[in-house]
Amino acid sequence: MKDLRDYVKYLSSRHRLLEINEEVDPDLEISAFTDVAARESVYESKTLLFNNVKGYSIPVVTNLFGSMSSVKELFSNSYASELLGSLGSLKSKGKISLVKGSKMFLDSKPKLVESQLGRYRRLNGLDELPITRSWPKDGGKFITWPLVITESPKDGSTNVGVYRMQVYDSLTTGMHWQAQKGGAIHAKEAEEAGKILNVSVSIGTDPHNMVAAVAPLPVGFSEFAFSGIVRSSPTVLMKNGKYPSVPANSEIIINGYVDPKEKRKEGPYGDHTGYYSFVDPYPVLHVDAIYAKKDPILPASLVGQPWHEDAVLGQFLSDFLMPVIKATNESIVDIYLPPEGIFTNMCFVSMKKRFPGEAKKVMFSILGLGQLSFTKIIAVFDDDIDIRDVRKVLWALATRVEPQRDVQIITNAPADSLDPTSSLPAFGSKMLIDATKKTREEGYNREWPETLSMPKDLVEEVERKWRRLKS
Ligand SMILES: Cc1cc2nc3c(=O)[nH]c(=O)nc-3n(C[C@H](O)[C@H](O)[C@H](O)COP(=O)(O)O)c2cc1C
Q1: 58: domain range?
Q2: How many CB atoms lie within 10 A of CB 462?
Q3: Which ligand 1 atom lies nearest to the CA of residue 181?
Q4: What is the pLDDT along the chain (471 residues), one digit of tens a residue?
Q5: Which end of the chain is least crowded, N or C, by CB within 10 Å?
Q6: Rounded distance between C-alpha atoms, residue 26 and residue 55, angstroms
């Protein structure tokens, strides 16, 4: 898919697009429509294209990734999934083709072309764009699908992240990068060097770039290389003067700068926790120039109490990248971040315990891993528990946890700044729940009772009879 418009056409061909031609208000109404669309089944939820936005000639598209089918299809032909899926066997059997793997990495390098800004028209301010307001008590309009691109003042590496941007006036926005995210780390480096940080923002590009910007990749691993890998063709970036290079297929480009010393109140904003976020100080983006394609589409996202498109993306990406975590911790069988746990607040793990205390080792390793370090509550189960089945999870929590022995609280730890429960922003506690069956070596002085089950062949026979009796 060469750009956003191409993706929208693709969705239409799959009957996953609803075009709305009657007039809609970017102030709440577009979001209210999107909220209704998100209530549909997670596989069928439709993308909405608003062609007639009150007061604007630019269409708005929402719920681009609300359908799990679409997101899975975007990644289906990718060698990256084959590679990730083979990580386990790579260690033991070396099944993966290393030639293919090295070619993939070489091919993934973004291709840099000359600036094509001449094809764009220059806008005077952000008020020329149909930027939406999501929830009634939001502090204003927010750009909700910006790919914020920064370069490390230290080593020049590029970071791309989606960080919402509150519109303060037509040339000033907030920059809501959380302290642990790539953009914030670059701003910190700029502060240490006594410099401002030039920022470019791409709004609306091909879907692989958009999904890559959300992926929790390690700092230093290029999101545009990742999108090249999953797209199976390199990302094309265009030079952008003193600002970081941007995808050459961007619908809208904003160039500006962040002065790391400057902070301004940001929010409230109806967030993916299901609550309004706190009003906290965040950096400010000063806009130097805005460019738009001749006929751009503006993508917007609505988040709220799960499920919305961020939940679909989060669920997909955590499953897609899980082999990396499993490869570093071979006793892990499955990891599940339930969207209802807001991804960062709850994590279930199943494992094959091999030595006393290994469940704790697994929990500690999760707390040390990238964005998983935000996790507030981790529960570890034996591998007979399907951690994606909430009934099994509750049963194991109720029957395998002795609170005094199996629950630990870790205090004064980094936390997700969006968590409304922490007393201080981005700083809080963790709960570790060991819901594995305890062994004698772990101080359990009784014989763990056997789990009830019928002989397998008897079950199969009775099921056959059952089907006959029912038919
Ligand atoms: C629609 C949407 C909005 C998001 N808004 C923010 C945000 O305002 N601040 C933030 O830190 N992360 C936000 N995220 C999550 C980041 O994009 C995600 O953590 C990403 O991995 C960050 O990239 P980085 O690791 O390169 O910083 C958002 C994700 C989505 C899908």
Answers
A1: 4-300
A2: 12
A3: 27
A4: 899 999 999 999 999 999 999 999 999 999 999 999 998 877 789 999 999 999 999 999 999 999 999 999 998 876 666 666 665 554 544 455 556 666 666 677 899 999 999 999 999 999 999 999 999 999 999 999 999 999 999 999 999 999 999 999 999 999 999 999 999 999 999 999 999 999 999 999 999 999 999 999 877 789 999 999 889 899 999 999 999 999 999 999 999 999 999 999 999 999 999 999 999 999 999 999 999 999 999 999 999 999 899 999 999 999 998 888 888 888 999 999 999 999 899 999 999 999 999 999 999 999 999 899 999 999 999 999 999 999 999 999 999 999 999 999 999 999 999 999 999 999 999 999 999 999 999 999 999 999 999 999 999 999 999 999 998
A5: C
A6: 9
Tell me, in angstroms, the distance from the centre of ligand 1 to residue 369's CA: 17
Q: How far apart are CA 235 and CA 208, in angstroms?
A: 9
Q: Are residues 281 and 346 in the same domain?
A: no
Ligand 1, closest atom to CA 215? 21
Beta bridge partners of 298: 60
The answer to whether residues 20 and 90 belong to one domain is yes
Say if 456 falls within a structural domain.
no
What backbone torsions phi and psi does residue 346 show, to the nearest 5 degrees? -150, 135
What span, in angstroms and rounded, lies between the C-alpha atoms of 401 and 289?
A: 57
Q: How many domains does the chain have?
A: 2
The reply to whether ligand 1 has any atom less than 6 angstroms from the CB of 178 is yes
* Active-site annotation holds for 419: no
Burial class (CB within 10 angstroms; exposed 0-12, middle 13-18, buried 19+) of 18 = middle
Planar angle of CA 185, 161, 182, nearest 5 degrees: 15
Question: How many A from CA of 203 to the centre of ligand 1?
Answer: 14
Residues 291 and 430 in one domain: no
Q: Do residues 240 and 343 share a domain?
A: no
Residue 166 main-chain phi, psi, to 5 deg: -75, 130
Catalytic choice (3, 138, 206, 271) = 271
Ligand 1 contacts CB of residue 214 (under 6 A): yes
- Backbone φ and ψ for 377, nearest 5 degrees, come out as -125, 120
CA distance 387 to 397: 11
- Which of 162, 316, 374 gets mutated to test ligand 1 (max ligand atoms within 8 A of its CB)? 162
**Count of all residues that appear for the chain in the document:** 471
Q: In whole angstroms, what separates CA 254 from the centre of its chain?
A: 22
Q: What CATH number does residue 189 fall under?
A: 2.30.110.10
Specify the amino acid at residue 166.
Q
301 C-beta closer than 6 A to ligand 1: yes
